[in-house]
Amino acid sequence: MTGRTLLKYVRVYIDGYDMSGYSRSVGPLAWEFEEVDLTCPMADAAKGYLPGQPTITPTELNGVFDNTATSGLHAVASVQNDDRVVLVAIGDRAAPVAGNPAFMGEFMQGGYHAEEDAGAVVAKVPFGPWEGSSLIDYGQPWGTLAHPNAAADSDGSDSDDFQDYGDSDGSAFGGYMVWHVTAGDGTATITMEHSTTEDDSDAAAISGLTTGEIDCSSVQTGVAVTTSRTQQINQYTRWQISMNTATSVTFALGFVRARY
Amino acid sequence: MAAQTGRTVSKFLNLVIADSTNTLRDIGVQSLSVCGVTYEEQDLTVFQDAVMGALPNMPDAPIEFTTIFDTTAAQAASGSGVAPALSGSHTVLAPLNGAMTPRTIDVQMGIRHTWETGEPQFGLTATDTSGYIMTQYNPNFDDQTVAVKFVLHPGSSLPAWGTAAEAAS
Questions:
Q1: Average pLDDT of chain A?
Q2: Domain B10-162: which CATH class?
Q3: Which of A128, A174, B35, B135 could form a cystine bridge with A231, CB 3.0-4.6 A?
Q4: In chain A, what percentage of residues exceed pLDDT 70?
Q5: Domain segments of chain A: what residues?
Q6: Three-state secondary structure along chain A?
Q7: Which residues 6+ apart lie within 8 Å of B49 measured at CB?
Q8: pTM for this prediction
């Protein structure tokens, strides 16, 4: 399903926790380029600009103050000044599913503020800009939800899970993935694969896009980038999971195939 | 129907943008804040003048609007005299933000009906060195809006008001 949607179909994940149940809003999901003025007034007909470096930030999460142990907003966000792995999935008039748009990255958390708002005690989490190390080569926060926050079993991914980018040449600008493991019972490795067809036998791992083996019996989160910034990523992509001791892993996975 | 003259309302405004494949797409508009040419006012006044005086310096023509976040698949723009065939804003605009290739924009003002050739439009047909580039894509899911801004590529021709549709390139 495509088209217009509503806030009630948006989900937000922070550092491995689903914050949707504590959030009243998140955003604006800003992606704004510096406009570098390159006008030559003696010759140009009008002012002209090129995009410089973008500022990217989820701006602010506005939630209800809730001190539920471990997974509540207060427990997760009250330790400020940390870099936060954020994934905002935009469902199309339903809970988000694979292929829906997603805004993702790693961002500085600029604070944690409790406030009163019309009788409600709320908490605001301001975010700063793009975290300055792991994703510094990528200035593009919009990709797709490769896997919604749901359980995967040992069968892993299949041909139904391919996402089609519609370009037979693929792209040569690399990409990155963002993961939030919210539940599980053992160790597993989550990866991204690509393919030139929607055939299982053609799928191959995208170099670099792996969680490595992680213990899913506790909450896990992180980002991974392709081995090369100019790495080829083919027309079709999908998630994959390799179970080790785990029998079920619940995770949300976002993927950005860079456009330039 | 023939081109009309007179006053109009916003439901007959259409925004056409060339997407990342250089195909024209109709994009829904929720608000349009800037559309037209603005000249820098260069103050040239000296003490002895009887009145403040200025000359128009370099013109600028950013286009800023808000749209509704929409993932509808891209479809061809409708063209003159045909109701807009809206493509998804996210589908068309997200790939354009920050890209260096100039693109066509055409803001069409239908006069009390769907825009058709002969009615006002403002825009610029892109070339390799002239056209619009996108610098802002800010969705806000409090109200599902997306704030968007385009500015001119360096060396661009000056966009102008006219009555014929802009081409993709």
A1: 94
A2: mainly beta
A3: A174
A4: 99
A5: 7-32+55-130, 147-257
A6: CCCECCHHHEEEEECCEECHHHEEEECCCEEEEEEEECCCCCCCCCCCEEEEEEEEECCEEEEECCCCCCCCHHHHHCCCCCEEEEEEEECCCCCCCCCCEEEEEEEEECCCEEEEECCEEEEEEEEEEECCCCCCCCCCCEEEEEEEEEEECCCCCCHHHCEECCCCCCECCCEEEEEEEEEECCEEEEEEEEECCCCHHHCEEEEEEECCCEECCCCEEEEEECCCCCCCECCEEEEEEEECCCCCEEEEEEEEECCC
A7: none
A8: 0.93
pLDDT in tens, A184-229: 999 999 999 999 999 999 999 999 999 999 999 999 999 999 999 9
Distance in angstroms (rounded) separating the CA atoms of residues A222 and A178: 6
Taking alpha carbons only, the member of A112, A130, A117, A118 closest to residue A73 is A112
Inspect the interface and report whether the beta carbons of A5 and B59 lie closer than 8 Å. no
Distance of CA A259 to the CA centre of its chain: 16
Contact A7 B141 (CB under 8 A): yes
Q: Which two tokens stand for residue A167?
A: 């370009």
Q: What is the pLDDT of residue A153?
A: 83
Per-domain residue ranges for chain B? 10-162
The minimum CA-CA distance between B19 and chain A, rounded to whole Å, is 13
Closest partner residue to B71 (CB to CB) among A3, A47, A48 is A3
The first and second tokens of residue A64, run together, are: 């209800």
Tokens of B167: 């081409």
In chain B, pLDDT over 90 holds for what percent of residues? Answer: 98
Point out the residue among B58, B142, B144 whose CB comes nearest to the CB of A4.
Answer: B144
A4 has a pLDDT exceeding 80: yes
A205 at B interface, C-beta within 8 A: no
Distance (Å, whole) CA B60 – CA A215: 56
| CATH code for residues A147-257 | 2.60.120
What interface predicted TM-score (ipTM) does this complex get?
Answer: 0.86
Instruction: Tally the C-alpha atoms within 13 A of residue A31's C-alpha that lie toward its C-beta.
Output: 25
Q: Looking at the domain covering A7-32+55-130, what would its CATH class be?
A: mainly beta
d(C-alpha A2, C-alpha B140), whole Å: 18
Question: Does A7-32+55-130 match A147-257 in CATH topology?
Answer: no
Q: Are the CB atoms for B62 and B149 separated by under 8 Å?
A: yes
* DSSP run (H or E) holding B88: none
Q: Which helix (H) or strand (E) holds B71?
A: none
